[in-house]
Specification:
Strand content: 15-25%
Number of strands: 7
Bound molecules: S-adenosylmethionine
Radius of gyration: 16 Å
Number of helices: 6
CATH superfamily: Vaccinia Virus protein VP39
Strand order of the largest sheet: 3-2-1-4-5-7-6
CATH architecture: 3-Layer(aba) Sandwich
Oligomer: single chain
Shape: globular
Distance between the termini: 28 Å
Number of domains: 1
Order of helices and strands: HHEEHEEHEHHEE
Structural class: alpha/beta
Largest sheet: 7 strands, mixed
């Protein structure tokens, strides 16, 4: 998907996004973020923060930055920041494949339901590793191609259709591990039939 197409799709979603997706995505974010040890003053980057329903999950003693390509998605996130007085949160419009932060800035980087939306996941992963501190935590929540050959083939077939509604369905976790040199510490799904995985990785740069 091209950047302009991604912006167009998520601008269309922005007002109805929470209504459609929150019930699916929020429990996974909640579980992942609540499993983290977040110390006072730590810097957290939420890449592709979207409408920001993850934002109230971060403790107020952390410094949280949320970035997104879509100004319309960010507008919804801004509303939450104001309504809930999330003074520890800053939001910026930014492309995840060119993050405007110095090297080794963040203790924790979270990228939830985004890595299969961007045109070049390896470039985004490289940027995440660059801005994350050495040994920093990287949390990826996403759908990855099934290990089952039949399902994997089906996901490949439907991927062009999925792209029309905002993501691809055939991104393999092994691809990120091999081409992005991702060092996975732990991975799990909330249940046996869950479509999404939570990946905890350590920045091995
Ligand atoms: C499926 S939504 C996920 C939003 C949020 N993380 C959540 O869990 O609800 C994908 C988000 O990624 C954003 N996005 C897509 N490409 C991006 C890029 N290159 N840089 C930053 N954000 C991007 C979209 O604008 C959208 O808000």
């Amino acid at each position: 998907m091209e950047e302009t197409e991604i912006k167009r799709i998520y601008a269309t979603y922005s007002r109805i996004y929470d209504f459609i997706f929150k019930r699916w995505f929020f429990p996974r974010q909640q579980h992942a973020i609540q499993s983290l040890k977040i110390y006072p003053g730590q810097r957290i980057l939420d890449v592709g923060v979207g409408t920001g329903f993850s934002l109230p999950l971060y403790p107020r003693h952390a410094q949280v930055l949320g970035v997104d390509l879509s100004s319309k998605m960010l507008r919804e996130a801004h509303k939450k920041v104001q309504q809930k007085r999330l003074e520890h949160v800053t939001l910026l419009e930014m492309d995840a494949s060119h993050l405007a932060f110095p090297d080794s800035t963040f203790d924790i980087v979270i990228v939830a339901f985004v890595i299969s939306v961007v045109p070049d996941p390896i470039q985004v992963l490289a940027e995440i590793k660059r801005v994350s501190k050495p040994e920093g935590q990287i949390v990826i929540i996403n759908h990855f191609q099934s290990q089952n050959r039949l399902m994997a083939q089906l996901e490949k077939w439907v991927s062009p259709l999925c792209a029309k509604i905002g993501w691809r369905s055939d991104l393999a976790l092994e691809y990120l591990v091999q081409h992005g040199d991702l060092h996975i510490d732990r991975k799990y799904s909330l249940n046996k039939v869950d479509l999404w995985k939570v990946i905890y990785a350590t920045n091995n740069k």
